[in-house]
Design a protein that fits this description.
The structure is a single chain. The protein is an alpha+beta fold and 91 residues long. It has one domain: Rossmann fold (3-Layer(aba) Sandwich), CATH 3.40.50. The chain is 26% helix and 15% strand.
Length: 91
């Protein structure tokens, strides 16, 4: 993450910390591909390629999951493609 982008993210987090509940989703380059369910999410995940790509459908699915999953509440996870599946904890 570049320094200006990191600073902007810190400012947004600071502002949002006063709000009720939030998650800032940081996807890589977006594609129009189909949903695969194959991605990693986290604040410290590293790209395995120089220009990672992820489908808009996968990003949308992750965002919808965040409505019921508080794993990333108050965080700004990066989404990156991965061979391992991101699995949502269901009760």
């Amino acid at each position: 993450m570049s320094v200006p982008r990191a600073c902007a993210c810190v400012r947004v987090k600071s502002t949002l910390s006063r709000a009720a509940a939030w998650v800032i989703v940081r996807p890589p380059m977006l594609t129009n591909g189909a949903k695969t369910g194959r991605y990693r999410a986290g604040e410290s995940v590293q790209a395995e390629t120089s220009i990672p790509r992820l489908s808009r459908a996968d990003v949308a699915a992750f965002m919808l999951d965040q409505l019921e999953d508080d794993r990333f509440l108050g965080q700004a996870p990066t989404l990156l493609p991965n061979a391992a599946l991101y699995t949502r904890m269901r009760s």
